[in-house]
Design goal:
- It is a single chain.
- The chain has a ten-stranded mixed β-sheet with strand order 8-7-9-6-10-11-12-13-14-15, with helices on both faces.
- A hairpin with a 5-residue loop joins β13 and β14.
- The protein is an alpha/beta fold.
- It folds into three domains: 88 residues, 3-Layer(aba) Sandwich (Rossmann fold); 212 residues, UDP-N-acetylmuramoyl-L-alanine:D-glutamate ligase (3-Layer(aba) Sandwich), CATH 3.40.1190; 144 residues, Alpha-Beta Complex (Protein-Tyrosine Phosphatase, Chain A), CATH 3.90.190.
- The chain has 15 helices and 21 strands.
């Protein structure tokens, strides 16, 4: 078929475009980031695969186009969208709906869902499969650390095993019908819990096997009503008395690695020792091992594979440690739970934390504002320092009725919260705050310039 991907550089879009190309389809696409000269490495990779890229102006749609796939980041009134709707016989489809179709056609299709941890869990499953030399298609939302733009994608045989990150942000979880559906957690993000419950309930009901985290109350409620489940429990504490097919006992959460013991009902145990700190990463690893077991991979083999897991780009990715012992960490955290997990993991490894958060849009900033107001004063220690970077604006028509200065003003004066309107100001603020032995943690989503900012922070310090 002849496809056009509008917003093809997106983290979820480009792997799917590459997969369709690997499976023999004709692929065209555009991205306003490419038009602005951004992400040249990704652009070159797509072109090298035979994908035709054009400006996002509505003039480059090919003759005979059959499917127009669009990113959630692309507004409905762009010139390209208007032009696509005017073409006869063209099916317009949001990216997640195409992904749901691909997952449903796989044997088996594994859909990784949950408010937080999806990219890391998907990466961990991919790493286990790679180490077991099992052919699989991987459609992750982020690249494997150290592997560049290719690291979140692998093309396996069409119709075979496929593992895909599946997001609830645009309401399309209801379209998935996976052979194995994983729900890691359900918390407030992209919308209120009432709406999310309906989506995840439909996803659970459509999953032939539901792999579920019973330590999460919302997920546990869904699992109890499902006829076929594999349950895992990564909560702290001794495994005795906890009812799950796979149980984690936490030994240590940092500062540089996290360790635990995994146990299955048969009584078999396996050591879990991963190169990423934090209780949340042990939970992510438990989820990945649960899926591996459901796929027929032995517990000990799956757990051992994760001892060399390189991590996922921008998920507590340590950029480096300076000669004075300042550790610089880059993280994709952008909602309450993810910010809490990243900050807590960073605090485990330092006496003093210098944290910077860039909200990923004006709407998300408004949505998060009450939660951040309540959470940050309780989470940050007296010696820690926190700064809001200027809100990231990706373009389009939005109400710019909130600022990082407003968010900073919500916090108690005792926190000495900083506000940096741009990346140059972030560098200036961090340089003035950081001292030997500190951890500098940069958090934020969507902005493709954040990885470069993290590296600039490291070089400056």
């Amino acid at each position: 078929m002849r496809y056009f991907f509008s917003g093809i550089a997106g983290a979820g879009m480009n792997p799917l475009a590459q997969l369709m190309r690997a499976w023999g389809h004709e692929i065209h696409g555009s991205d306003r980031g490419f038009d602005q000269g951004k992400e040249p490495e990704l652009r070159a990779r797509l072109v090298a695969q035979g994908i035709s890229l054009v400006p996002q102006d509505g003039k480059g749609l090919p003759a005979g186009l059959e499917r127009f796939i669009y990113s959630a980041a692309v507004e409905k009134d762009t010139l390209e969208m208007v032009a696509a709707r005017a073409l006869p016989g063209v099916s317009l489809m949001p990216r997640p709906r195409l992904l749901a179709d691909v997952v449903g056609a796989a044997d088996p299709g594994v859909a990784v869902a949950g408010t937080s941890g999806k990219s890391t869990v998907t990466g961990m499953i991919a790493w286990i499969l790679r180490k077991s030399t099992r052919p699989a298609t991987i459609l992750g939302g982020a690249a494997m650390a150290g592997e560049g733009v290719a690291g979140g994608f692998a093309a396996g045989p069409e119709g075979g095993l496929l593992v895909a990150e599946s997001c609830e942000s645009d309401g399309t979880l209801v379209d998935y019908r996976p052979g194995i559906g994983l729900i890691h957690n359900i918390t407030r993000d992209h919308g209120e819990l009432a709406g999310l419950r309906q989506q995840f309930a439909a996803f659970a009901g459509h999953s032939r096997l539901l792999v579920a985290n019973v330590a999460d109350a919302e997920t546990r409620a869904l699992a109890l009503n499902h006829p076929r489940t594999f349950l895992y429990d990564p909560s702290p504490g001794r495994p005795e008395g906890r009812v799950a097919d796979l149980v984690l006992e936490i030994i240590s959460t940092g500062p540089n690695r996290a360790r635990g013991v995994l146990s299955v009902k048969s009584g078999l145990d396996a050591d879990l020792d991963i190169p990423q700190p934090g209780a949340h990463n042990l939970a992510n690893a438990t989820a990945a091992v649960a899926v591996a077991i459901a796929l027929g991979i032995p517990l000990t083999e799956a757990a051992a594979a994760l001892s060399t897991f390189p991590g996922v780009a921008r998920r507590f990715e340590v950029i480096g440690v300076t000669d004075t012992g300042i550790r610089v960490v880059d993280d994709y955290a952008h909602n309450g739970d993810k910010l809490r997990a990243a900050i807590t993991a960073a605090q485990d490894g330092c006496d003093r934390l210098i944290a910077i958060f860039q909200p990923h849009g004006y709407g998300p900033a408004r949505f998060l504002r009450p939660e951040l107001h309540d959470m940050l004063p309780r989470l940050l220690r007296p010696q820690d320092r926190f700064c809001y970077a200027g809100i990231y604006y990706a373009g389009g028509t939005v109400a710019k009725d909130i600022s990082s200065s407003d968010l900073a003003g919500d916090l108690p004066i005792a926190l000495k919260c900083g506000c940096a309107p741009d990346h140059a100001a972030v560098l200036q603020w961090a340089a003035a705050q950081a001292m030997p032995g500190d951890t500098v943690l940069l958090m934020g989503a969507r902005d493709p310039a954040l990885p470069n900012l993290a590296r600039a922070l490291y070089e400056l310090l």
